[in-house]
Amino acid sequence: GQEILTRDKVALRLNLSATWCYADVLHAFGQLQKPVEHLYRELQFALRSAVGTRSLDELLEDKQSIDDVVIAQVRARLGHSGVDVRSVGVKDIVLPGDMKTILAQVVEAEKSAQANVIRRREETAATRSLLNTAKVMEENPTALRLKELETLERVAERIDRISVFGGLDQVLNGLVSIKGA
């Protein structure tokens, strides 16, 4: 593992894993004084090169590209040295504590913005539906009356008890006295 700066100047700690073997032990020690140390150094240089040319967002979105660049560079540099690099992989990308907090806030803000967009779409759809209903009722008095009855039914479902004072007789007497006056 080593600490490396990204293109946008964020310090990261990366852990890299590599699988390798000697393709030709005698040739490897003939070409390189310390093949394992040389391999380690080449892996470090390739990792620095791959990370230093990318932004933090690019690295977090596509770790596989780091692996591809590192293995290509190491294989090219070691070429016919007798060392065969089979695979390379970034195991961990460790962010500094403050960067973790900032990234968490960014993700939270993005999710909040997405939720607001969805909420606004739903509100717009509901408003359109109300507008369409209003147009239908304006053009059709029967539909308006049905809507009134539907609303009255919903209100009546919530009422526990209805108390009528005076009753029907009082209403009829009121009508008769109005006509007589």
Automatic annotation (TrEMBL):
It holds the Pfam family Band_7. Transmembrane segments: none annotated. GO terms for cellular component: plasma membrane. Coiled coil: none annotated. Residues 2-123 form the Band domain. InterPro entries: Band-7_stomatin-like (IPR043202), Band_7 (IPR001107), Band_7/SPFH_dom_sf (IPR036013), Stomatin_HflK_fam (IPR001972). Belongs to the band 7/mec-2 family. This is Band 7 domain-containing protein. The lineage of its organism: unclassified sequences, metagenomes, ecological metagenomes.
